[in-house]
Design goal:
Layout: E1 3-8, H1 14-27, E2 28-29, E3 34-38, H2 43-46, E4 54-58, E5 68-71, E6 80-83, H3 92-102, E7 111-115, E8 119-121, E9 125-126, E10 131-132, E11 135-139, H4 153-163, E12 180-184, H5 185-199, H6 203-210, H7 215-226, E13 232-235, E14 240-243, H8 251-259, E15 267-270, H9 278-285
Parallel strand pairs: 1-3, 1-7, 2-9, 3-4, 11-13, 14-15
Antiparallel strand pairs: 5-6, 7-12, 8-15, 10-11
Helix pairs in contact: 4-7
Amino acid sequence: MKTAIATASYAGDFERCRLLCETLDTHVTGFTRHYLLVESEDVSLFRQLENAHRVVVNERDLLPSWLKAWPDPLTSGKRRIWLSPRVLPLRGWHVQQMRRIALAAHIDDDAIFYADSDVAFLRPFDAGMLWRGENLRLLRHDGALLRPVPGDQLMWSANAGALLGIDPAQKSPHDYIGTLIAWRRDALLSMCERIESLHDANWVEVMGRVRRFSECMIYGRYADEVLEARGHFHDSLDLCRVYWFAPAPTDEQFRAFVAEMTPGQVAVGMQSFIGVDTDHIRKLIGY
């Protein structure tokens, strides 16, 4: 089975993405290509990271031409906003999710393994481990939504059900969100076809009307409740240990954080919004 790796990124995360690429090249095997999915304006910057197995993909080649990026006046043009009469205004994190889904229609691999820009691989990892025969690993935290959860996860799960035409009374108890996750290409394609058939519109347009969504929740509920888990096996282990909240860790705290990785974890992630300098992370992990 063939597995590609994909990272949706942007200029503000370039140095983090560079570190991801360096650690991935050192530790990860068993994949075909590593795709960097970026906005048109960022293509030339990210070309620096291309090599024999890494290629930059312009979002213009993935998303509909009617969805266009503009400088966001609320940030004095430092960030971008995606506008169209067909959708609500979208931020970069919305469009990055759409790129991840859209890639499936442009490659022929059996699966896509997604790695965020703020990830650094610290241990060897073979992408072939994502497979059990012809079944692909699906990250699922069983019953997680039955407990108090932060942020909008319950809303994301409910909106995923609405997008997929699942009975609103059928609420999922599971959380599918993770930093290193894998999805089947054929499932992604049939998922988009289902959304378009149900809503009589392009899947990007349907998601863009909702705005409050998680691609992980959409795929997870589709795989479990529409496909009835065919082609998948469940695993609750987060392959990446993530430092989520500010303040940024001290050097001692960071080393302790790495030391506490479980045997099955192969990478760490430092959320960009907590203010950890990438050069400092590089120094601490020996890159």
